[in-house]
Amino acid sequence: MLRVRLSAFLALLVLVLAACGQPAPSPAPTQAGGETPGATSAAALRVAMIIAQGGLGDQSYNDLANEGLTRAEQEFGIEAQRVESPDIVSQGEAVLRQAGTADFDVVIDLEWSTAEALTVIAPEFADTRWTFMNFPVNGDNVTSFVFAEHEGSYLAGALAALVTSDTAIPGINPEKVIGVIGGTKSTGIDKFLVGFIQGARDVDPDVEVLTSYTNDFGDAAKGQQAAEAMFEQGADIVFQVAGGAGLGVIQAAADAGVYAIGVDTDQSSIAPAAVLTSMIKRTDLAVYESVKRAIEGTLSGGETVNLDLAAGGVELGTIHPSVPQEYLDRVDELRQQIVSGQIKVWNVIEQGYPDFLSE
Amino acid sequence: MSVHASAERVARPRVVGGHLERTLWTLVPFGAALLAGALVLLLSGRDPLVTYALLVEQAFGGHIAIGNTLAQTTPVLFTGLATALAFRAGVFNVGVEGSLYLGAFAAAWVGFTFVGAPGPLLLLGAFGTAGLAGAAWSFLPGLLRARWRVDEVVTTLMLNFVAINLTSYLVNGPFLAVGTANSMSPLVDPAARLGSLIPPSQVSIGFVLALGMALGFGVVFGFTALGYELRVSGTSPRFAAASGISIFRVIVVAMLISGLIAGIAGAVQVLGVNGRFIDRFSPGYGFTGIAAALLGRNTALGCVLAALFFGALSNGSAMMQLFTDIPLDLVNVLSGTVMIFAVLDVARLRPRRLREAG
C-alpha cells in the first residue's frame, strides 16, 4: 500500500517537475505559415530557423524573430521550418549540421550558444547561407546581424533627461537624476549604458545618471531591489537592460509611481502607466532581411550587417502619453542627427570605454 | 547466512518462468505512449504512421543520427542510474538535477582554470572535482534523512533550486566569460574536451563511460555486499537493521554515490558536449532521470533502455522539425504519457499468478 501511494506521489512529482522544466507550451508555431497555399512562387526558398533558449511563446526575442519569419513567409511564399527544443543548448550543433545536410538554402540561428559550432559547420556546407544574431561570426557564407543598441539607447537617454527635468509630468521629482540597470558588467551590456548616458548628457549636462548591475538576467526580485535603491537616491526614470531581471525594474517603477524604460521589445504593455518608452531591437527585421536578401541574391555572407537607427534596426517603442510633443520633436531631431552622422554615439564594443564610464 | 538468504527471497524472488512475460509488461508504457501520441496526431490532422516513421528515421537513420541520439541518451542514463541507485536503497533522491549542476560547474571550473595542464591530469581533475561536488551536494540531505529522518524528497527537491541558482550566480558574476552578455563560463581547455565517438555527431566517449557506469551498477547490485545491503535496506529496512546492517550508513552512502554519478553526468555534458558551463543548461536531465529509473524498474538494463527511449525522442523530435511542421507539444505528450504509465506500475494490474511470481 505504501508503495502504491509512493508511486502515485512520484508520478505526480515527475509530471510537475517535467512541466516546470518545459518552457510554457507555445501556441502551435507552425499554423501561421506552414503550407501556405501561395507557396508556389518562384522563390521556392527553403529556410530553417533555430529557436533559441526560452522557446516560442517567450513574448520576447524568439517571438519577435518568428514574426519576421512569418512575415517573410506570407510575402515571399517561402517554405520555412522552425526547430524548437528544450535542450537546444546541447542539440544546437547537431541541428545546425542536420540543416546543412538537408540542403536548406538559408539557416537562421537565433541560439547564441552555438556561435563556435557555427564557425565549424558553415564552411562544411558551402551552399547554405547561415545567419547569426547579435554578434559577428566569421565565415564566407555567414551573415551576422548586429544592432546599434548604443544609438537606440542614446535616444532613450535623451528622452529620459528631457522628462526628468519637467516636474509638470506626473511622478517626476525636482531632482535631475535618472538611472540605468544592466544585467551584468560586460561590453555587450555597457554598449547600452554608454549610449544612454551620452544621450542624457548631450541633452542636459546637469543630469546625473546612476548605474548598477543586477548580476542576473532572470531574477526579477534583483531588478526590483536595484531599481528601488535608485528611486531612493532621487531617480525617477530607470532604463533596464537586464532581461528577466528587468521586469522587476518595471514592476518597481509601477509600484513607486515613477518610470522605467523597457528593452528589446516594446514593453509598454507590461505596465502602460510606468513604461516611459522601450529601446526596441528589431530581431524580426533581421530575420525578414535574411530571407529578403537571400531571394534577391545579396545574402552573400562574410558580412556583418549593422542594423542601426538609419536601417530601422533599433527604435523607441510606444512613448508614454504624458510626454509633451516638444520633447518628441527634440528626440526626433536627435534621431535625424544620428542618422545623418552629425552625432556619433560611442560604441563600447568597437571603441572601448569612454571616460564617463569605468571599465 | 541462512537469515540473509531468506531475506533475499523476500526481497526479490527469482522465478524464471515469468521473466519474459514480466519484460513484456514493462513495454506497456511505451505502447500506451505511442497510442496516446497517435491520437493527438490524428486529432491534429496528421498521419501518425508517417510521423512516427519520420521520428524513427531522424533518431536512428544513419550513424550521425544514432550518434546524436546516444548523445541525448548519455545524460539521462547517468541521472537514471543515479536515481535508481538511491531508489533501490529506499532513499527517494529527487536532487540529481542539483548535483548535476554542481558537477557541471566544477568540471568547467577545472577546465577553464588550469588551462595548459596536461590533458589526462585535467580530465582526471575535472571528473574528480565534479564527482566530489555532486556527492557533497547530496551529502547534507542524506545526513538529515539518516540522522533525523528529515524527508529527503523535500530537501533534495529544494536543493535543486539552490544549485541551479547558485551556479547561475557564478556564471552571471565571478565566472562570467569576459566580453559576453550571455551567462556562461569561459570555454574549457581543449585538452579537457572529450572526443566524439562517432564524428561528426555529438556523442562523446562519455557515452561509453555511462555504459560502464550501468555495468558497474549491475555488478554492484548483483554481486557485492554493498549492493546487497543497499537492496535489503531499501526493501525491508527493519529486517536489514535487525540483521546488523547500519541503515544510517546505507542511506548516507547511497546518497553520496547517487550524487557522485550525477556530478559525473554534469562533467560529461560540459566536457563532452557544451565545452563550457552555460546557465540553466539542463532541460531537466535529473527529472527525466527519475522517469528513466522508474521506467527501467531501477535496473541497469532498464535504465539503459529507458534512457535510449528518451534520447531518441529528444533527438528525433528536434530533427524532424526540419522536415515537417510538428509541434513540440507532441513530444511532451509522448514523454508525459510514458511517465504516467511508468509510475503507475503496470505490474500491479497484471494477472495474479504473475504478480506472485514477480
Supply the number of helical segments of chain A: 11
User: What is the terminal separation of chain A in angstroms?
Assistant: 64 Å
Q: Which overall shape of chain A is indicated by the principal axes computed on the Cα atoms?
A: elongated
What is Rg of chain A? 22 Å
Radius of gyration of chain B, in angstroms, nearest whole number = 21 Å
Strand tally of chain A is: 12
- Uncertain runs of chain A with pLDDT below 50, 5 residues or more? 15-42
Cα end-to-end separation of chain B:
24 Å
Percent of residues in helices of chain A: 40-55%
Number of helices of chain B: 16
Q: In terms of quaternary structure, what is this? A: heterodimer
Give the helix/strand class of chain B.
mainly alpha
Give descriptors for this structure:
heterodimer, A: 359 residues, alpha/beta, Rossmann fold, six-stranded parallel beta sheet, 11 helices, B: 358 residues, mainly alpha, 16 helices, 73% helix, disordered N terminus
Folded structure, characterized:
- The complex is a heterodimer of chains A (359) and B (358).
- By secondary structure, chain A is an alpha/beta fold.
- Chain A has two domains: 18-133, Rossmann fold, CATH 3.40.50; 149-281 and 314-351, 3-Layer(aba) Sandwich (Rossmann fold), CATH 3.40.50.2300.
- Chain A has helices at 2-21, 61-76, 88-101, 115-121, 149-164, 187-203, 220-232, 243-256, 283-296, 325-340, 348-351; strands spanning 46-50, 79-83, 106-109, 129-133, 142-147, 177-182, 208-213, 237-241, 259-264, 275-281, 303-307, 314-316.
- In chain A, the strands form two sheets. In chain A, strands 2-1-3-4-5-11 form a six-stranded parallel beta sheet, with helices on both faces. A six-stranded mixed beta sheet of chain A has the order 7-6-8-9-10-12, with helices on both faces.
- The radius of gyration of chain A is 22 Å and the shape is elongated.
- By secondary structure, chain B is an all-alpha fold.
- Chain B has a domain at 79-196 and 206-285.
- Helices cover 73% and strands 0% of the residues of chain B.
- Chain B contains 16 helices and no strands.
- Chain B has helices at 2-11, 19-26, 28-43, 48-60, 63-88, 96-113, 119-148, 152-172, 206-223, 225-235, 237-242, 247-274, 285-295, 300-320, 328-344, 352-357.
- The longest helix of chain B is centred in the middle third of the chain and has 30 residues, at 119-148.
- Classes of the chains: A alpha/beta (359), B mainly alpha (358).
- The interface between A and B is large, with 59 and 63 residues.
